[in-house]
Amino acid sequence: MTDTPTPPATAREWQLLSRPVGWPEPENFALVEAEVRTPGEGQVLVRNEYLSVDPYMRGRMSAAKSYVAPYELGKAMQGGAVGEVVASNAEGISVGDHVLHFLGWREYAVVDAKTAVKVDPQAAPLSAYLGVLGMTGLTAYAGLLRTASFKEGDSVFVSGAAGAVGSQVGQIAKLKGASRVIGSAGSDEKVKLLTEEYGFDAAFNYKNGPVSEQLRAAAPDGVDVYFDNVGGDHLEAAVGSLNRDGRIAVCGAISVYNNTEPAPGPKNLARLIQTRGRIEGFLVGDHYDLQPQFVQEVGAWVRSGELKYRETVVEGIENNLEAFLGVLRGDNTGKMIVKL
After folding, report:
1. What is each CA distance from 276 to 69, 237, 247, in whole angstroms?
2. What are the tens digits of pLDDT across the range 6-33?
3. Do residues 242 and 266 make contact, with C-beta atoms less than 8 angstroms apart?
4. In Å, how far from its chain's centre is CA 291?
5. Contact between 306 and 157 (Cβ < 8 Å)
6. Are 280 and 248 in contact (CB under 8 A)?
7. Fewer CB within a 10 Å sphere, N or C end of the chain?
8. pLDDT score for 1
9. Rounded to an integer, what distance in angstroms lies between the CA atom of residue 305 and that of residue 290?
């Protein structure tokens, strides 16, 4: 085991200074020096090695009532992180252990041990615990298999399909016996990735024409399941192509996160009557009971190479904000990770 470095007196963290209206701007944030505290009873001090940036964080920058508390102004923001324990005042977690926790956006974090999950850097790369084997992976797994009630033979459409969640949804569907998997993405390069590396049967660039027309061409027999990461015109298109008893799992709506006016809803929802279709939103936090099953099944696919994943890695905490904005722009292929 390598020698654990002595923690510094201060370290950097990102704070929210003001709440963005529309697109977040750099002046809404500040990278500041903060004291590195000694862990109290039942706590550990973690030197973060990888940080996660995710679309849901945009919602936490707003004061609007939501499913998770907004970020507090003038305090460090939060998010998924994985790192090495450099000081421990808790049973069961030792110096040198690696843990997954939710005090990201900073170099060092004092974490309550009961909220930290030990991870094995020998079993998978540490960054994988923020993506393919972490919250994003479980989101894909729970949303497809539980919320959308996927069954063998289903035709599946995934939006944001080259992202961390979407790429995993499509591959899990194929591994579980989908009859056809269709993905949409925002560049021709990503479309190629979906069909050539991730095994999607068809994919299209939503910037190349109306989504509804491209989806009908890619799924002439309709879709049984739509996994929605985008909302807007993609949701309307999916409703238009939904088969009898079709299911739509609403995971995210990245197309409207920075809107200052409410986005219009799909104009064709009445079609759900004739298709007996259903739309259901979900949060990964409601499905942590699936975690052991998820890690066992998906972990085996990752190790065998049957399930492939990509990461877009940005280096340096000073680039954490730019990495987050990049996720909102769709700059990432797969999971966006910040390496410290």
Report:
1. 35, 16, 9
2. 889 999 999 999 999 999 999 999 999 9
3. no
4. 15
5. no
6. yes
7. N
8. 44
9. 22
- CB-count exposure of residue 271 (10 Å: 0-12, 13-18, 19+): middle
pLDDT of residue 92: 94
Rounded to the nearest 10 degrees, how much is the dihedral formed by the CA atoms of 80, 84, 90, 92? 100
- With bands split at pLDDT 50, 70 and 90, how would you rate the model's confidence at 3? low
The pLDDT of residue 261 is 73
Give Cβ neighbours of residue 90 (< 8 Å, ≥ 6 apart): 39, 41, 42, 43, 44, 113
- Write the DSSP string, 113-170: GGG-EEE-TTTS-GGGGGTTTSHHHHHHHHIIIIIS---TT-EEEESSTTBHHHHHHH
pLDDT the model gives residue 244: 98
Over range 319-335, report the average pLDDT: 92
Which residues, at least 6 apart from 338, have a Cβ–Cβ distance to it below 8 Å?
Answer: 50, 51, 52, 53, 313, 314, 315, 316, 317, 319, 320, 323
Q: What is the DSSP code string of 48-73?
A: EEEEE--TTHHHHTS-S--SSPPPPB
Encode pLDDT of 148-157 as tens digits. Answer: 999 999 999 9
